[in-house]
Write a structure and sequence with these properties.
By secondary structure, the protein is an alpha+beta fold. The protein contains three helices and two strands, in the order βααβα. It is globular and about 35 Å long. The termini are far apart.
């Protein structure tokens, strides 16, 4: 049992509220770890149309692009 959170166009929110966007991701990561202790899953999928979007590590883990969705070259527009 668990929960899945999906954020679309997170880049729009991040552009308007960068610190809050980072905080939201950290809160979700913290709660996902806590849920795992009780055998529950929390999965968060974050969509961005901005190929340049970056975040500080979330929950002490670096943020990685989904390599199978698109390559670095296609995100950079080259």
């Amino acid at each position: 049992m668990g929960h899945v959170l999906v954020f679309t166009d997170f880049d729009t929110f991040t552009a308007a509220h960068p610190e809050t966007a980072q905080t939201v991701l950290n809160i979700i990561a913290d709660n996902a770890r806590r849920a795992a202790l009780f055998g529950r899953r929390v999965i968060c999928l974050v969509h961005s149309s901005d190929p340049q979007i970056t975040f500080a590590p979330v929950g002490a883990k670096p943020i990685a692009w989904n390599d199978t969705e698109s390559s670095d070259a296609s995100r950079q527009g080259t």
